[in-house]
Amino acid sequence: MTRSPSLAALAKTIVGCRACSRLAACNRAAGSDPPKRFVGERYWSKPLTGFGDPHARLLVVGLAPAAHGGNRTGRVFTGDRSGDWLFGGLHRAGYANQPTSIGRGDGLQLRDAYVSVVVRCAPPGNKPTPDERDACLPFLVRELELLPRVRAIVALGAFAWDGVVRAAKQLGHAVQPRPAFGHGAEARLGPYALIGSYHVSQQNTFTGRLTVPMLDAVFARAGELT
Questions:
Q1: Partners of 193 in the beta sheet?
Q2: pTM of the model as a whole
Q3: pLDDT tens across 136-185, in order?
Q4: 5-225: what fold?
Q5: Which of 46, 123, 139, 158 could be a cystine partner for 181, CB 3.0 to 4.6 Å?
Q6: Strands of 51-52's sheet, edge to edge?
Q7: How many CB atoms lie within 10 A of CB 91?
Q8: Rounded to 5 degrees, what are φ and ψ at 36?
Q9: DSSP reduced 3-state for 104
Q10: What does the domain layout of the chain look like in residue ranges?
Q11: Which DSSP helix (H) or strand (E) runs through 74?
Q12: pLDDT at 193 over 70
């Protein structure tokens, strides 16, 4: 897939961002002290862009890159168990040509879908601060502007749900009362149908809080709304 010139320009801006010193340090630290299974690998250790089909009608938004997943591979949700769940679900729904992704250049292609995150760097303990969220939010706003065909947004977790609501508000699509997150929850934000899903993290998938049928139902509903 080839990014549009505008998406490519945004990607360059995102990768060059060093606004949050705590997050930049966390990116570097992960690569300097990796777990044994990744020793010797060269880490990306920079902010991450979204990726996928520039004509997508579905946008999937997560919290942030994983320290030893996207921060290592250079592509969000790639190279870890969360990505296995996400891309498996997208593959079963017809949005991805393969069910797994281990790194950039592995042949993964998304059709009619785009994947992104609210915060672009790996935060300590997967917990960005409000200031870090706000520093990154303009990138998500700009992605929405550059993906004009998006009609359904799947938010993976409450943090992503909140980030999408905030980004939509900046685009003039505020809604009152503020919609509450829940698995399968839906909200209308201007042209976007927002759908909530529990995050594909291991703490949800290993415990059974999120199951394959639950995830598949979310993507099936997204397909109905696009």
A1: 152, 188
A2: 0.95
A3: 999 999 999 999 999 999 999 999 999 999 999 999 999 999 999 999 99
A4: Uracil-DNA Glycosylase, subunit E (3.40.470)
A5: 158
A6: 51-52, 113-117, 58-62, 152-156, 192-197, 186-189
A7: 18
A8: -55, -35
A9: coil
A10: 5-225
A11: none
A12: yes
